[in-house]
Structure prediction request, 278 residues.
Amino acid sequence: MRKYRTIPPLAEHSRPDLNKRKILIIDHDTRVLSTLVEFLRDEPYDVLTAENAKEGLKILRRKKINLVIAEMYMAGLDGVAFLERVAADNIQTNVLIMGSVLFMEVTKKIITAGAVGVLDKPIVKDKFLAEVKNCIPLNEEGYSGSRVREALPAQPKSFQQPLNAGREQVSPEALESFLEERYRDPGLKFEELAHHFQITPPHCHVLFRKFFNKIFSEKLREVRISHAEHFLTGSSLLIDEIARLCGFNSSSCFCKAFKRIHGISATQYRKKVWHGES
Prediction:
């Protein structure tokens, strides 16, 4: 029995097959899968389906998918954890989550985690097709990567603009905001921060000492470890996945940094919190 299946469109289209965008739909309910595939039958997309997150991730690691449409609560993973896995694996795709939008806090978490949007169930065809068209990249040249990777969490304009065009005042809050926006980048350099604020590196060194009593690398490590704590206690991500998600070049570098700050390993920290130990 196949883990997934490709469902070719039933209508003929003028576009060559190689130019068709690929959509992956993940839902445990085969009736939902059939309905959504039917909605897309006359659209110029190649559609694949999976019945759980594990199968969906296998497809994503093997194929280039332009848009994932996934249910909020999948076996073993919820929407946020799924988005974290996608980001940890550096999978370039857009993700649209299906589920109830009645709980705004949940919706906010989904968007913050990198989803391009949330669709309320039951799915209405016209709204569904409009959302798909809005979320899927239009062409290869314009496809620069996933929202999960580039906007997880959703990046403010300061991340999109490398220079501090408005001459933003250099304050502790501004420096921390920059690090919060860029901590996932394993190649982040001190010079990039100085360039962003249009100040000299020596002056930047002075400011870090003045504001935080730390050098740039120490403060960046502190920010990364702070986010790693969240992933350790609030998700089932593996240590290696958390390390990559938080900007570390390797799990060994992450583990050394974590132990230097907490005095215990990341695994011990996770067990301690999960078991409610003081």
Remarks:
- The mean pLDDT is 79.
